[in-house]
Amino acid sequence: MRIKIGILGYGNLGRGVECAIRQNPDMELKAVFTRRNPADVAILTETATVCPVSEAEKWKDELDVLILCGGSATDLPVQTPRYAELFNVVDSFDTHAKIPEHFANVDAAAQKGGRTAVISVGWDPGMFSLNRMYANAILPEGSDYTFWGRGVSQGHSDAVRRIAGVKDARQYTIPVESALAAVRAGENPELSTRQKHTRECFVVAEEGADLAGIEKEIKTMPNYFADYDTVVHFISEEELKRDHSGIPHGGLVLRSGTTGWENEKRHLIEYSLKLDSNPEFTASVIIAYARAAYRLSQEGASGCKTVFDIAPAYLSAKSGEELRASLL
Amino acid sequence: MRIKIGILGYGNLGRGVECAIRQNPDMELKAVFTRRNPADVAILTETATVCPVSEAEKWKDELDVLILCGGSATDLPVQTPRYAELFNVVDSFDTHAKIPEHFANVDAAAQKGGRTAVISVGWDPGMFSLNRMYANAILPEGSDYTFWGRGVSQGHSDAVRRIAGVKDARQYTIPVESALAAVRAGENPELSTRQKHTRECFVVAEEGADLAGIEKEIKTMPNYFADYDTVVHFISEEELKRDHSGIPHGGLVLRSGTTGWENEKRHLIEYSLKLDSNPEFTASVIIAYARAAYRLSQEGASGCKTVFDIAPAYLSAKSGEELRASLL
Q1: Phi, psi at B327, each rounded to 5°
Q2: Is B276 on the interface with A (CB under 8 A)?
Q3: Chain A 197-216, CB below 8 Å of chain B: which residues?
Q4: What is the tens place of the pLDDT at every residue in A182-213?
Q5: Taking the model in full, what pTM does it have?
Q6: How far is residue B67's CA from residue B46's CA, in Å, rounded to a whole number?
């Protein structure tokens, strides 16, 4: 009996979840729910069904876990509480500041329905959060650092695209090497926003556009760019397509701490990710937590959980005996 | 009410545990149990008692967790099952091949006594195991690599010391940079023992000893050195004391894997540790799991657990709300 999975929302993340399921023989994709016309949505899995999202609720006894692949801004705050009452669910809600509120809403719904929900799964929040937490528990005296990149920021790319005269754009977030070196050297630097990351934009301008004006508008844009050193490159549409069509990302979590009676010994814990595809890696983390959600639910658990609340063994298809013998 | 801790065995690890307790205000050291004459054992914590190990059992209702700081070869296989029946315990049993047997023995004892035991806690086994396991669950298609060092191997140092004509010695295990670079480049190399690590020995010879003979005996020693490229330096006793009295260690766990419908996307997960003091870092991990053992026991759990079986939040002194707000 394989774990029966549904996907709600079939964009980059939904497709990534579909691919991840294929790598896990104990799971199968049963249905994809879409807001588009199902006839227009071509999925990769021949044995799964594409349904309108309005029919999702009818599947509540057919699926073991429903993966919610919508966006954090407007989709998930509504969808996760709604479906957590009917299904075991996993989402990748990533608006860090609103996680407590989202947790409370989802928890109430999942408790009511007797289901297990896992929120904020992916790499940040997700694997980066786990590494921050473990490192803090192990080294209570120390400093935390998170660096993102080199990778594409969708939000910043969109912000550049909204500028008049910009046809298309891709923005990369890049850690500042000297800052990283100072952290690794145990200097515990206090780093400003500008000192931690630079931003690099590849912009396709419309013909006859004011390039200097666009560059200035990018570099002075509040919140998105004004606090960073930003480099702007104008390139052709062909170059953008050829060199910047991927969605790579990654980053590092570091904790630099001390031990000893007089804090005389230094330690550095570093976790890093280099990802060819941000959505596919996020999807792979989600699928491991879908297994956990299913098992917890089988054990009678209900309510909302995060990566902090789930014992690692629940993520693996291997038994406790196998894990102890092969990976401990 | 602080968590009351006992330490059994007061060597480098036991002293590290004592220091780690001081960094965690929700814990206090109550007693140290030693096989030596208690009058000869000077501990750092003024409020704790030093007792002969024969009296440990009398403390069974006075301690929340007993930390077993003996060696894996002969101490822990006897001590952990024995004390797991009476106390919640944590050990750092690190003979990987014998973990399944140790787990079974400790589990039976802890079940019988209604106590919680956590075995094989530290960084390898321990944090490295966790990272291997998470990375395998997330990227089921990929290759695992563990590198150790640069750091002092106690076992290899001891092996060199046993050679006739050797007064003292320190052995460092060092990852081969080119092998690490190939892994990071996603080449998924198959690496022999020799290709992964080199060994570097600093040897103080007795006066008039046959240096060439010692060097040859080291380099051809089965299991310890014969399968590695080994460099031997003869130094003075003063140099050894000045430059090699620390116990640094560390290493890296990497998983290189693929995602996508045709496995066309590559990802690299890397976890690394750089530790000034191997025993103090191990002790810091142990103390976080001591908190977990105490809490699990309070919840009514019993039996043997490993790092795979314990939800991360149990390690932290922070509440779930605090963790979600600050570290997720």
Answers
A1: -120, -15
A2: yes
A3: none
A4: 999 999 999 999 999 999 999 999 999 999 99
A5: 0.97
A6: 19
